[in-house]
Amino acid sequence: xxxTSRAGARNAASSPTAEGGPAVKTRTVEAxxxxxxxWYGLDDAFTGPRWLMQVGVTADGKVQHGSTGHGEVPSxxxxxxxGLKERFAVVVTVATxxxxxxxxxxxxxxxxxxxxxxxxxxxxxxxxxxxxQLDHTLRDDWLAQQTEAAFELADDLEGxxxxxxxxxxxxxxxxxxxxxxEFGWVLAGSTRxxxxxxxxxxxxxxxxLGFSAIADIGAYVS
Length: 222
Description:
The protein has an 8-stranded antiparallel β-sheet with strand order 1-3-4-5-11-10-9-8. Mean pLDDT is about 80; it is low at about 1-10 and about 10-25. It is globular, with a radius of gyration of 17 Å. It is an alpha+beta fold. It has helices at about 5-15, 30-35, 115-125, 135-155; strands at about 25, 40, 50-55, 65-70, 90-95, 100, 110, 165-170, 170-180, 185-190, 195-200, 210-215. A hairpin with a 2-residue loop joins strand 9 (about 170-180) and strand 10 (about 185-190). The N and C termini lie far apart (about 40 Å).
């Protein structure tokens, strides 16, 4: 199994602060530039729009993970016809972290793994959709249920729900775990540069994608 425990992916998703609290979420380009690891996006074969999403930053300013968007910005709720028509792909970059003590000294945080990236990608896909048959009052219950299911799947990347897929990362063939659902697709793996990658999308086939380190994150500022 990829993750050291169920808590490993959850820790990366919640990005605990140095005091053990939740991470600050921000989408400014300055926050991306503070990261001590390389950001990844789709490679130059993709010629469409690129845009910033959010990074998870601890209370002491350490960037732990973040996402970059490609294609059309999801509108979250589909149109009245019930269609999910946007074409987009989001790339999630997760810093490699070893097992470490929690900020409050009461326990340990597990190492980040490809499962951490899978969890962030799976929950990200869910946050970008809204089944047309659900109203506001039901969506929270639906989202909580689906998010827990996505976490269970991320914790078992060797399970039957995932298939193997090889995609180029910095022009090198790289193995990924891949799955599809009625809402879109999710994949996750690890790079030779020492970060974990997740991705999710809809309307764009994952099979033709390639990833590369972003030379200038400013290119994602609209």
